[in-house]
Predict the 3D structure of the following.
Amino acid sequence: MIKDFGNIECTEIVWPSLAQKGLCLYMARLDKIHPVVSGNKIFKLYYLIKEALETKHQTLLTFGGPYSNHLVATAYACRQNNLKSIGIVRGEKPAQLSATLLDCRDYGMELIFVSRKDYKDEAFIREIHNEKNGQFIFVPEGGYSPAGARGASLIMEALQALNPSHICTAVGTATTVAGLLLKAEPGQECIAVPVLKNLQDIPKRLNSLTGSSQWHNLRVWNEFHFGGYAKKNEELLHFMNRFYRETLIPLDFVYTAKLMYAVIKNIENNFFKPGSRIVCLHTGGLQGNRGLAKGTLIYD
Ligand SMILES: *Cc1c(COP(=O)(O)O)cnc(C)c1O
């Protein structure tokens, strides 16, 4: 379902002080997989789509808010594979669908709007399950599942040719970083940058995703959430424009801008030893920038 799976385009980043500090910095361009669909989401769905194709289940059912990168990725991946998709959307149906939900609908996703109270309510889900005769594969919000982590581990496999010493990713549900850890070699460090405030339960999440909470090669940088999920300030937006001017790589304000801000800050703070080969995942998410006021960014 992903053409050329093992081949992720990587861009070497030229940035002041990198050479002087003896560092190499790369971005793995999962954002190039699709203009709207976040690259890491497609990987997380890989084994779930495979399961749907191999069993009689012809439908994936999943959850998300009106701006969910995961919903649109699921809609897209299902369309690509001639599967049906159902999206349970948090909140009452708005008069005007968000651009994200319009994309979902264009990819053929059936959208079911539920109140915040019913969203993820077990009895409610059982009801839908019965209504659809149980004929679907259930995908937790954000692809948060062991199968999702195994799918994300394919990213790490594809990046080993670069021989990274550090692999850095933004964290929402921690499924992507779980996948990186599954395939990291001893001596390779995975750096997680949560984009939510108070994401304190990463070990517990890793335990349910991978069966282990003890990952000695994991580092979590908790201080770069900018106030919480989808929160931003002038400094972050300024950084996004600067990063684009220097590298011509667009970042999204929810995930990848916070990741790169954190990595650049810690390069400046000499966190990385000379000789380090740092690979950052550009997980995509650029569609989220459509929510910013026009002219905020110098790109798109
Ligand atoms: C969902 C998402 C993430 C977070 O991935 P998790 O596996 O949930 O931690 C990072 N970047 C982008 C662009 C995303 O859409």
